[in-house]
Design goal:
Blueprint: E1 2-3, E2 10-11, E3 16-19, H1 23-58, H2 64-96, E4 99-101, E5 106-111, E6 129-132, H3 162-165
Length: about 170
């Protein structure tokens, strides 16, 4: 959805360098939250039902079978709430993964994605950026034809700001 860093940009550790489309992830989080609230509502209902049947059973107005059934329903509702709570946590975690941050201070050597491109992780994590930690001292090993060696010289390349190119 967004790219905030390009080739030759300096980035700081923790800086947001890209954002994936979050619409589906936000929808999943919303659905998980609704399911969690529904499970909590169901738990509250089953808790009150259990409490009512327990009082009736103490007065011999409800059978042991009814009490067991109410206890079973209550325990099932508690497990359902716990499961839905974990689904909400997983959806929040997945949503956080949609914001790509620089793991180190450095310079972007390569940007392997463009805005609008589909990024899919199947068996391995896709490489979105290659960031070098320190380019102050660089050693380059290259083969140069002897006819061209006279033209090799050190040069300083002017850099446009990262915001101008992204």
């Amino acid at each position: 959805a967004k790219i905030n860093a390009d080739f030759n940009c300096k980035v700081k550790k923790g800086q947001v360098i890209a954002e994936l489309d979050k619409s589906k992830l936000q929808s999943t989080l919303k659905q998980a939250t609704i399911s969690y609230k529904s499970a909590e509502n169901d738990l509250n209902y089953k808790q009150s039902t259990y409490n009512r049947i327990k009082k009736l059973a103490e007065n011999k107005s409800a059978s042991a079978v009814e009490l067991e059934q109410a206890e079973y329903n209550l325990n099932a509702a508690k497990l359902s709430v716990e499961q839905r709570k974990n689904e909400v946590a997983q959806a929040k975690l997945n949503l956080s993964y949609a914001t790509i941050k620089s793991p180190i201070d450095g310079v972007v050597l390569k940007r392997a994605v463009d805005v609008g491109q589909t990024v899919a992780a199947s068996m391995s994590t896709p490489t979105l950026f290659i960031i070098a930690k320190d380019l102050v001292q660089m050693k380059v090993m290259a083969s140069v034809d002897e006819a061209d060696i006279g033209q090799v010289k050190e040069s300083k390349i002017g850099r446009a700001s990262c915001r101008e190119r992204v």
